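It is time I had a proper look at our fold encoding. Can you supply me with one protein entry, sequence and fold together? It will help me judge whether the discrete encoding reads sensibly. Leave the record below and I will have a look:
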Amino acid sequence: MKTKSRAILGSSRSFFLFGPRGTGKTTWLKETFPDAVVIDLLAPSVRRRFLVQPERLAEIVEGRNGTDTFVIDEVQRVPALLDVVHELIDTKPGLRFVLTGSSARKLKRSGNVDLLGGRAVQRFCHPFLACEMGKDFSLPRALRQGMIPLVVRQPEKEAADILQTYLDLYIQEEVTTEGVVRNLDAFARFLEAASFSHGSVISASGIARESGVKRSTVDGYFAILRDMLLTARLPVFAKRAKRALVAHDKFYFFDAGVFRALRPAGPLDRPSEIDGAALEGLVFQHLRAWNDYSGAPDFLGYWRTKAGVEVDFVLYGEKDFAAIEVKNAATLHPSDFTGLKSFREDYPEARTLLLYRGETQFLRDGILVVPAEKFLRSLVPGRPPLEAFSGEAASACAGTD
């Protein structure tokens, strides 16, 4: 697969670029800032040098040769460097520091992210979007193996092994290296148990029983996953609520392939159930990336009443208000429209969209039904998320490189 153009949102000023390992941060930075001075803290010799003497960064800046951009890769490995960056930004206007990270845990403990607030904005790197992959995007493969560039770029028959190795390295390098988990066996059991909550409200007590650990330990494990950028939460949309709503966030792994690799399958597991959770997660990661790459213009959440009526996703912003339901089926039933109809009763201003595995786009009871693959291909950062279905424009991304 040839190199794809990414939609990652940069900045003309100093910025953090956060994203899980393997999502393409380093590749994008090399292409975007080819003349930058790069400090790769994944290299043991480089990391040791700066752990001993973080002030050496100032010497490198003084000796720069015609560049004002400095990339510090995996900055969480040496958090003390951020104190030096802070001082250099204040004393040498015009310099730009690009600070990448695949874990926010050490940075949170050091307090440096807050310290640089206002001096360095935050940006995010996600797995591939369908529009970034163009003709190479395959919905069935994305549901099996996800959209992590490190995995997607491998031959399909090798991708599953690469994905499993990716997860193993994450546990070994990130969890073990930072010393935040003492019992790796329990953590592995927790990851498997947590995979059953993908796309759902978390039952921490149930996961604790399945993992054989305390409830407080499970809470700590989830905090680790968030800090490692492996998971995300989806809050409840409750603006001007007319009904009693649930109060808890939904939980997703950051990539559908990661979910599939962690989720065990056996005789008692229905493939359609796993596929449905994978499809919902794939839509979530696309909406999340679209929002971040567009400058986060919209609130992204879900809607669920205490009576159990639910809409998978709600986009709400100055220009967007849409409710989106996801169904992993090629044939739809009247009950599939219940959530969207209830939402529209409370919010008649919202556009309602149902994504499914069929091939035909149609309108039913005022709800636009769209093939899931078509929707994912049409989601282009910087453009309204439903632009392709407004009758004003065709998909700008589908089938292109």
Notes: The CA atoms of residues 4 and 132 lie 6 Å apart. The domain at 15-124 is CATH 3.40.50.300 (Rossmann fold). The first helix runs from residue 25 to 32. The chain has two domains: 15-124, 130-389.
